[in-house]
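Re: the request from the purification team.
They wanted to know what the chain is likely to look like in 3D before they choose a buffer screen. I agreed to run a prediction and write the result into the notebook, where they can find it.
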Amino acid sequence: MKAPGLHQHQGLRAGHYEQYVVSGDGVPVSDNDLVIVWDGARCGLVGQGRNGILGSALKKLSLKQEFFHVPLSYVRYFLQSHYQQLNTYSRGSVIQHVDPALFRKLEIPIPAKNDERFQRICTLLQAIDEIEQHTARQLHLVRDLKQSFLHEAFTPGSRNDGPSLGAHP
């Protein structure tokens, strides 16, 4: 059985899969996981997992059981806020790698479950995620519209019977 393979940051950020792997050949990841680019120029980039198998440059992040009440978006945004630091202070002269010691030193501020401020932060982050997803869908529709227009405008014999672009009246 073959499964989508997340490779580098393209699949992580956009959910596009260009390669497939045999499902037993790697670490399975789901939409409910966090993934970090551990190796390469974009090391330190954190995103939401996609159903599939991780590529070798990616690592799956897991929460300890006592932190299961913390929304993944909260952890993801915290780690994303440290991307520059993780990327800049990476190790490796040819291929960059996240410095494990630096990564382990990151302390995610996690308040008590019933902390009102924590609840507001989580609610706001959820709203931001929804806006981001909506915006991504809208951007995709705009790109499709643009491509459709370009096809219509520049394809000979298309429904556009008006003067061609660049023609003088």
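For the purification team: Strands lie at 2-6, 19-22, 28-29, 34-37, 46-48, 52-54, 58-61.
Please add any questions underneath this entry.
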